[in-house]
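Exam revision sheet. Question 4 asks you to relate a sequence to its structure. Input first:
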Amino acid sequence: MLAETAETTAQSHVGSLPRQVQATLAQAGLDWPGVDGLAISIGPGSFTGLRIGLSLVKGIAYAGRLPVAAVPTLEALAHVADAAPGEVVWAVLDARMREVYAASFERGPDGLVRRTPDEALAPAALAARLRAGDVVVGDAPAAYPVLCDSPARILPFATHHPRGGVVARLGGAALAAGGAADLGPLEPVYVRPSQAEMARGHSR
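Answer key, structure tokens:
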């Protein structure tokens, strides 16, 4: 990894994201001609944030004719746990509306192997599935104390949070293996309907 920047904000990153991308390139001593491909965390996550990120990536990719790798957000988060062989890692993010996004992975001889699909669950339902020896990474335990009451080991989100460098590494491996996404139909992974979609359903 040549460079990595991070920015925490409660505001929309529609204005700050292009500046941050440019700053990361400068930190790495690169400009766009030196970029071979792009990787994006494709979801689940904030509906607005995912749309903003994907719109920027598509614009850059079309302009520069660059391949794009779509990296599942929970998979990238699970990698920051740095699990030991045989450990089960649950990547868990606060999905708002009293739900969490969750997926589990197990560290095998060749890296993390997915055990469960991305799901939107009630915190109590997830807590019932956590076992002693499991590792939980993500911001959901801070929002839902029931997860902290489980026998699993909770990693602090302040030190184990999503990393752009992990997304880049996983995306680079995917592109090297021929796993570029079809850019035209590429959409964020939401896992559940948006609030607007659910409101339309209730109004019918």
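Marking note for examiners. The chain has a mean pLDDT of 92.
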